[in-house]
Amino acid sequence: MIVNEWTGKKKLRKQYRFVNQVPLRNTNDALLVNWCELTITDEESHVIYRNSFATDYPLDRKNIKQTIEAGRTRWKVENENNNTLKTKDYNFKHNFGHGKKHLSSLLASLNILAFLVHTVLEWFDQCYALVRNSLASRKTFFDDLRALTRYMVFDSWQKLMEFMLGGLDIPAPEI
Q1: Considering the chain, what is the average pLDDT of its residues?
Q2: Minimal CA–CA distance to 3: which of 45, 59, 44, 41?
Q3: Contact 16/65 with Cβ under 8 angstroms?
Q4: Over residues 132-144, mean pLDDT
Q5: Residue 53, phi-psi category: left (phi > 0), alpha (psi -120 to 50), beta (remainder)
Q6: Can you give the residue ranges of every domain in the chain?
């Protein structure tokens, strides 16, 4: 199915292809999936986007556009989340190696949990938010935190954050 679309700036040609019940691999016991692909080209026939998806939903001319849009949206969300975790010093990889049994899932879960805790801290802990926002990156924060806690003992998280604020010459907020 081909759809020509005007974006307001340029004309795009969207080609949708799909097939139902194809084997996922070349074996007799292969899982059967429904496959679809979107290729977007510009007026000069340069490919500007191509991606394919496998699904268990039956595909037809009526639902192919909606199914591909859902696949693109899901891919974008997952890719942006993974990139955030990879580039914000959480050392997150798309797979942590295979490990034994559930190791890769455990490591990914711990990374996501750490990201969640840091996000909540940034929302609700004024001292943490001030320290984080005054440092260049999370890596700097983690390196400073690691060095301080290696050589010093703090009575509480609050005392640690106040110490870091003092070292950065930032007044601690009134709590």
Answers
A1: 87
A2: 41
A3: yes
A4: 88
A5: beta
A6: 2-87, 103-167
